[in-house]
Each structure stands twice: as C-alpha cells, then as structure tokens.
Design goal:
- This protein is α+β, with helices and mostly antiparallel strands.
- It is 55% helix and 12% strand.
- The protein is built from 5 helices and 6 strands.
- The strands form 2 sheets. A 4-stranded mixed sheet has the order 4-3-5-6. The protein has a two-stranded antiparallel sheet with strand order 1-2.
- Strand 3, helix 4 and strand 4 form a beta-alpha-beta unit.
- The chain is rod-shaped and about 140 Å long.
C-alpha cells in the first residue's frame, strides 16, 4: 500500500474568542503552476547560482594548481641553481681556454708587444733613470736592437743593459731601474685571471673566496 503525498486539511490555525486569527497556519501549498515571467526568473537565478558555483570551483582549482607549481619550483630550485652554476663555470673555463689560445698566438706573432706596452706605461717613471736593465730569454742581437728602439720611442735616453735569463718564458720579461721594478709573465697573468674569475663565480654562488696573496691582474 502506497502512502499518499497529499496533505489533508489541518486545523492548526488559532482563533480568538472573537473569531480573529491569532496564529495563521504554517502550511503552504506547493505551487504547481508558474507564469512565463516566473519561469524566466527561476531559470536566470539557477544560471547565476551555477555560474557562481563554477567560478568558485575554478578559483579553488587555480589556487590548488598555483600551490602545486610553487611546491614543484621550490623542490626544483636547488637543482636548477646547481645547473646554472655548472653552466657558468663551464662557460668561464671555455672562455679562459679561448683567451689563452688567442693570447698565445698573439705573443708568438708579437713577442715584444707586452714589453712595448710596459715601456709606454712606465715612460715617466724610467725616463729620469740613468740605466734600464731588461731581463728576458733569447736575447739575440736583433731582439736587443728592437728593445733599444722601443726604449727610445718611449722617451728613455739612458743606457739599456740586457740580462739573458733562460728561466723566463717566451714573451716574459723583467725591468729594473733605479727606483723600481716591473715584470711580466703570461702564465702568472693567466693564473691570476683564472683565480679572479673563480672568486667571482664563487661570490655569485654565495660562498665567495678571497685571494691569499693579495695579487691583482
């Protein structure tokens, strides 16, 4: 036997002795017919509620996705930092190797180039000195004449003395005058450049290293 869904009339309305309604009935019959305007309004309301629900769901999904992306980035950042640092170090090593190759070729072609540059830079310091001692390896007659010409072009009018030092590398030299001394060694310069570059890379990585000998390029 099925139970009826209809509601019988209930006497839940209270009246006073005079017949006035004290408490109206709570029963409200279900509305079974709607006008076109009411239907349109209900459809619009349902669409608005559905849109709001969809926006809320999309916002929740977006927040979850951003959280996941942030977590993945945080986990990947150390590896990315190591990869970037390794790339920088490898690029620096490649640049140094290329620079050594270019510098070596230039010194082979113009072995007196560094000496000429040094004499031009030190012209004011050595011009008043009575003599200038030039130490280098392989000082043959042609090389000595070329060095004397460089000294004269730099404005040095004193005596130029030569000291053949086989221990010096090609293009390396040592200058000595009354009040000072200067020297050049391509290998030492390359070493200082490598140390400076290594220190700069270490500083970018957050653990800078300082020079122990205070040398500069």
């Amino acid at each position: 036997m099925t139970q009826s869904t209809t509601r019988p009339y209930a006497f839940d309305t209270e009246f006073s002795e005079t017949g006035a309604v004290v408490r109206a009935s709570d029963y409200r019959p279900i509305k079974r017919a709607y006008s076109p305007a009411e239907v349109e309004a209900l459809v619009a309301q349902a669409g608005l509620e559905a849109r709001q629900a969809a926006l809320q769901e999309a916002e929740a999904m977006r927040a979850m996705a951003l959280s996941t992306i942030g977590q993945c980035l945080a986990e990947a950042m150390p590896a990315l930092s190591q990869a970037v640092q390794a790339h920088r170090e490898q690029s620096a090593d490649l640049a140094l190797a290329a620079a050594r190759g270019v510098a070596g070729a230039a010194l082979d072609r113009f072995p007196l180039g560094p000496l000429k540059s040094a004499l031009e830079t030190l012209a004011q310091e050595v011009e008043a000195s009575p003599r200038l001692v030039v130490a280098a390896a392989g000082l043959d007659g042609e090389t000595r004449h070329a060095i004397e010409t460089l000294c004269a072009d730099a404005g040095f009018a004193g005596a130029v003395q030569f000291r053949d030092d086989p221990a010096l590398a090609a293009a390396a030299f040592r200058l000595e005058w009354a009040d000072g001394r200067a020297d050049f060694d391509p290998a030492a310069v390359a070493g200082r450049m490598a140390a400076a570059l290594s220190a700069a890379l270490a500083a970018e990585a957050g653990h800078a290293e300082t020079f122990t000998d205070g040398s500069v390029i």
